[in-house]
Write a structure and sequence with these properties.
The C terminus is likely disordered. The protein starts with 5 loop residues before the first strand and ends with a helix. The radius of gyration is 21 Å and the shape is globular. It has a five-stranded mixed β-sheet, with helices on both faces. Strands 3-2-15-8 form a four-stranded antiparallel β-sheet, covered by helices on one side. The longest helix is centred in the last third of the chain and has 22 residues. Strand 12 and strand 13 form a beta hairpin. By secondary structure, it is of the alpha+beta class. The protein has nine helices and 15 strands. It is 41% helix and 21% strand.
Length: 306
């Protein structure tokens, strides 16, 4: 059996939920302004050798990160997704605390963990991170003796054969980001009738907030840290999860909410703006119409500024 080398940066256990009843999904490129039709998610949000790394012996390892992502984020995703869908199928009042709330909230947190690391899994962010580290190391290498400098350069040339080159510990990264977020509230947003949520190429939209400065003996020490305080993650065309750092928005509580048409479009605008290069949607007509609306509003904003 061949080793898969086409690696997805948006997991297919998520993107498959955005297929239409005709098993179609429509991808919009923000670069060339075009919509393309796909009959599966096999080629959606993927890149050859994206999760391949070079091991300590110089061999290319195509499977370790793929297995890590599968084990910690993808394997149980359908189970958590079912918990949420079963809750939504129950007869309960919208806008009140979620029924079976702890089970549902736990499932929501587990799905949010996939979204919170979505951006660092994107090839563009990987490329930037790798270049930043390479630049810093090159600065150090210039002050080293020739033999050590050559060994360091050889290591980076070898790792340059794969786009990733960095073995990020995704489970630890997501766990740490959730812990830094602290107490949070979880909302389940339902799209207005006739509307569909977009799926961004970075899995979710996240916003970071500055951490509070430290005050010790009356003296203020600037804390440069930034913490994720908001995660907006669509899990299918009709359901959106929102995790909010509680002390940023104390008025918001756990609950399920049906969005108005305007708010559904607003959330899609956030997903669109936070996507890196592409978004996907199950409806070509809806995608096309909303993109035209976004373009028109952007042109109007530009005209007003000018």
């Amino acid at each position: 059996m061949s080793t898969p080398k086409n690696h997805h940066y948006v997991s297919r256990v998520l993107s498959n939920n955005f297929l239409s009843e005709q098993n179609r999904i429509y991808r919009y490129s923000k670069v060339n302004k075009r919509i393309s039709e796909l009959n599966s998610t096999k080629g959606l949000f993927s890149k050859q050798l994206l999760n391949s790394i070079v091991d300590d012996h110089g061999n290319v390892d195509h499977t370790s990160i793929e297995q890590e992502i599968s084990t910690h984020f993808e394997k149980d995703f359908p189970k958590y997704y079912k918990v949420l869908m079963d809750m939504l199928a129950m007869d309960h009042e919208i806008g009140i605390p979620i029924p079976n709330s702890q089970e549902v909230i736990n499932a929501t947190i587990k799905m949010i963990e996939m979204g919170i690391i979505g951006r660092v899994r994107h090839p563009f962010d990987m490329f930037q991170s790798k270049n930043s580290i390479f630049g810093a190391v090159m600065g150090l290498a210039n002050s080293m003796d020739k033999k050590l400098r050559e060994a360091m350069l050889s290591h980076f040339v070898t790792n340059g054969n794969v786009p990733h080159g960095l073995h990020l510990d995704y489970p630890e990264l997501s766990k740490g980001m959730i812990e830094l977020m602290g107490e949070a509230t979880y909302s389940i947003m339902l799209a207005a009738d006739g509307h569909y949520f977009f799926l961004p190429d970075c899995t979710s939209a996240t916003k970071r907030f500055k951490m509070k400065d430290d005050v010790i003996d009356g003296e203020v020490f600037i804390n440069p840290g930034m913490v994720v305080g908001l995660v907006i993650m669509p899990i299918n065309s009709k359901v959106l999860l929102v995790a909010t750092k509680a002390d940023l928005f104390p008025e918001r509580g756990h609950g399920t909410y049906i969005l108005s048409e305007g708010l559904t479009i607003d959330y899609n605008r956030i997903l669109f703006d936070n996507s890196i290069f592409e978004i996907a949607c199950e409806s070509r007509d809806y995608l096309e119409n909303l993109i035209q609306k976004f373009d028109a509003s952007t042109d109007e904003e530009h005209r007003i500024r000018v």
